[in-house]
Amino acid sequence: MASHKLENDSGSYSEIEENKEELGSKKQTKTEPEADVKSNGRLESRISKLTVPGHEMRIVEDYSNKKNAERHSGEIQAYAKFAGSTWTYYVKKIRLILGREPANQSVKGKEEDNEEVDMNFGPSKVVSRKHAVVEYNMQGQTWNCTIYGRNGVKVDGKLYKPGEVVNLSSGSILDVAGLQMMFVLPNASEQTITEEKVGEEMEEAEKSEESSATIENSVYDNRKPPYSYSVMIAQAILSSPDCMMTLSNIYNWISTHYPYYRTTKSGWQNSIRHNLSLNKAFRKVPRKSGEQGKGMKWSIEPEFREEFIAKTKKTPYKKTPPPFLCTPPFTLKRENSDPEHTSPPIPTPVRHQSPSTPKREGSPMTEEAPSESKDKEGGSYKTPTRAVLSDIIASQDYSPDPSTISQSKNPASASPATNAAYSTSSPAPFWKYVAVPNPHDWPHVGSYDTISPYRNPLNNHMVYSQLPQPSPKKIDEQMHDLQGVDLANGFEGISSWRESMVQKLRTANSGTSAPASPLGASTSPANPPRAWGSVSEPIPNRSTEVENKQQLETSVVAGSDNDHAVRAILDASVSMEKQPNVQQPAEFTQTGQAPQPALGATAQAHIEEHPSAQHYIQASNTDVRSNI
DNA sequence: GTACCGCTAAACATAG
DNA sequence: TCTATGTTTAGCGGTA
């Protein structure tokens, strides 16, 4: 359970707060273990040694500890923080853009260049405008950093280049253009910033000039991994943001994470191929047309994903396995919104079993007990912590078109499940049903720039570009689908509201300008005092959101850019509904009253059942934007 | 003893 | 033609 990340853990940040006594008093409900005090001490020590480059770094000035102290008179609520030697940036969003300060407004750049930078590293062109994005991965419950900047970002001494994604853990040290900062999650002790780990970080940071290979070797060893081939393949595929990987990338991933396979002869690669072909958990997906390269991509049949993940988590490794960046593929269709009403099982394409191959009944994973028994050399594995996904993350952004899913030459395997056919049987976190192809498009309450299609930094393709664009004739069907998206499980109230709004837009408002927002922003008497008293970040204008939302609705009705707009409406709807402090504009409600912010009963039950969903709800509900 | 599982090796076909 | 990729067959050892 990672929800603690979202709670008020100001106490964990005490090292940067001047009013320690006050903070200390807020921790009275929890006695800080002695070990935590020690590790915090080491943390402070480590943080104080982080470097600041000679050139101007805006963030160091804007978020100096002195200014923070002036700015925050009391407790600080945040998901995490970036702590530099003399400055601290508190993470109050679940998606942050790190980059160069915005260009002169008169200079029209690409749209992506104009995304609002959260962590401003100043004017130095060593830093790209969008240098990196740090965001919370709901599925893996991890913080990930996606690199965009040409000069990359060093994390724990290893340089990550554009397109690479690195998992941040508490204590990770980032280096952006010479400015070092430590990523710290609340509740350091729970986040396993143990003395040992802090020590590791220090050592790793101090070795930052060493080659990545050296660092990797310090983390891994050469023993045979305790995972079966199928699990390692699954790990590789799941580490890819788009949930699929080429054979060669699978090879690379395995040999990178498990050095055993760097030195052994290529027989294991034969076994990998053998496993991919024979194991019914793996499915071939063709490359998109025109995409260079040889061979298919491999993905995991949806019904096996959870099992693979579970098996990986049962790792005999001391620490956590490599992060899974893969998110469920996009689908607008929801099969069943009622969690108590499970869908019939999706027929699994049956692979031909060779006569000599023992028939595997059921999941191939059920037997995937880690082959510890075979590895009797003793000793324990070191962990692939903060996995080096670098060269492995699949660079392709193929969004599978069901019609193009490979038909195996083997006739028995020629019935692939389409994306729309992913099982929605309970139990499954509600987000599995949500129409989001990757973390960038999760309906977090982020700024609307996130509604842009995700651009793969390696090939500069838009992820949605392959998605079939619905014709205007399908709007009704889509709106029906929209209504049916399982977000309704979590935010039932919004569905009827959305429907009525769309209806109104259809009948009366397609050509009119957006109504003036009745929101007087912070002066509205309906707005209670800010929940985040110490937050002083610029907050997006509420009326702008409303206008954006209307424009999006209109664009759907007009049939333009539907794919994006539909998702954006979802995003906007969730965003608005989850701002209980904000009065909904009368135009958008039937009664003029603010819709109930409470979750529906089924949603509540579902969320309680699935901590990750709860976590997400909390994350969204506690977003700083709720202060509008 | 048997069935199952995971692994290894190899032959072969095919695509780029 | 070569190489990478994918399929299939065969057999071995470990485990339940």
UniProtKB/TrEMBL annotation:
Principal subcellular localization = nucleus
Cellular component (GO) terms are:
nucleus
Query: What gene is it encoded by?
Result: fkh2
Q: Which domain of life is it from?
A: Eukaryota
Tell me the PROSITE patterns matching this sequence.
FHA_DOMAIN (PS50006), FORK_HEAD_1 (PS00657), FORK_HEAD_2 (PS00658), FORK_HEAD_3 (PS50039)
Sequence ranges assigned to domain Fork-head in this UniProt record:
224-314
Q: Where is the composition biased (Basic and acidic residues)?
A: 21-42, 332-341
Q: Which UniProt keywords apply?
A: DNA-binding, Nucleus, Transcription, Transcription regulation
Q: What is this protein called?
A: DNA-binding forkhead transcription factor Fkh2
Matching InterPro entries: FHA_dom (IPR000253), Fork_head_dom (IPR001766), SMAD_FHA_dom_sf (IPR008984), TF_fork_head_CS_1 (IPR018122), TF_fork_head_CS_2 (IPR030456), WH-like_DNA-bd_sf (IPR036388), WH_DNA-bd_sf (IPR036390)
For this protein, the DNA-binding region equals: 224-314
The FHA domain extends over 96-160
What are the Low complexity biased-composition ranges?
Answer: 408-422
Instruction: State the residue spans of region: Disordered.
Output: 1-42, 312-383, 396-422, 506-541
Source organism phylogeny:
Eukaryota, Fungi, Dikarya, Ascomycota, Taphrinomycotina
Name the species this protein comes from: Schizosaccharomyces osmophilus
Gene Ontology molecular function:
DNA-binding transcription factor activity, RNA polymerase II-specific; RNA polymerase II cis-regulatory region sequence-specific DNA binding
Where is this chain compositionally biased, Polar residues type?
Answer: 396-407, 506-525
| Localisation per UniProt entry | Nucleus
Presence of the UniProt keyword Transcription in the record: yes
Cite the SMART domains for this sequence: FH
